[in-house]
Amino acid sequence: YVRALSGSTNSSCAFHSWKHTAVQSIGVCYGVNGDGLPSASEVVRLYQSNGITGMRIYFPDADALQALSGSNIDLIIDVANEDLASLASDRAAATAWVQTNVQAHQGLNIKYIAAGNEVGDQGGDTGNILPAMQNLDAALSAAGLGGIKVSTSVSQGVTAGYPPSQGTFSAGYMGPIAQYLATTGAPLLANVYPYFSYVDNQAQIDINYALFTSPGTVVQDGANAYQNLFDALVDTFYSALESAGAGSVNVVVSESGWPSAGGTAATTDNAQTYNQNLIKHVGQGTPKRPSAIEAYVFAMFNEDKKGPAEIEKHFGLFNPDKSPAYPISF
């Protein structure tokens, strides 16, 4: 994914007529791999007091789901990777999952269910993703909940190609998933990290390009001009979807962030710059898709049990005591 730095396609002109109908939406990922984190009800209040309109949770945490009831916060719920095998092989298991984690809770705004997070990168069986999605879709439809869209969350490592117009899926399992999403109208959930692209390729990537602070165009790709790496990475996903015959599928950025400590270029200044600029930027979209992007910042809290890399502990916007890790405005 390191080389997936930018892009556009010959067909990009076809998308310039798209209406700007999407609403800017910024969520924050709520992970719980830390000591001393606030209660779920306190966390929901912290989202509300900061004007954060969306949340992603990494498993169907009953405490969080209860606290979210009536909150009007848009929600992504992950199916834990270890649960995909049973959901893939057994439609009754998918029905039970929907009953327990969706139907049993009232007053939720569930937008998406993510059938796994970065399954390929975590050594999981990627063959389980699509059948699990299909069984979850069937269970939701049978329950009259077809408005909840099922997808999977993938890393930028599933794409290859530079500039962005040359983006393709390097992972063979992605083509059928992309084509299935095109039939259901669900988006692809993509974890997009200019930070990791920059750290892995500092000789070729200027940090300003990664931080949204470049003064002008850095990569010209046909008619599309790229001033930041985030747009280039997202448009690489769009080119990959097009090349897979799934150009109608939207990309939702299910994680993006920058660490404030623990590694190369991991400072509070850089983290604040990246995340504040991301929040400001998503309303305008990318060169290939100039309409608002739905994005989720990773993550709400610094989580001291994450690892093994030290930086994994330092992606939070807030400390466990609810104090800001650095000032940020939504």
Automatic annotation (TrEMBL):
Gene Ontology MF terms: glucan endo-1,3-beta-D-glucosidase activity
InterPro entries, alphabetized: GH, Glyco_hydro_17, Glyco_hydro_17_plant
The entry's keywords: Glycosidase, Hydrolase
Record's signal peptide: none
Record keyword Hydrolase present: yes
Source species taxonomy: Eukaryota, Viridiplantae, Streptophyta, Embryophyta, Tracheophyta
Biological processes, Gene Ontology terms: carbohydrate metabolic process
Pfam families recorded: Glyco_hydro_17
SUPFAM superfamilies: (Trans)glycosidases
Protein name per UniProt: Beta-1,3-glucanase
Biological source species: Aegilops tauschii subsp. strangulata
Domain of life: Eukaryota
PANTHER family: GLUCAN ENDO-1,3-BETA-GLUCOSIDASE BG1-RELATED-RELATED
Similarity section: Belongs to the glycosyl hydrolase 17 family.
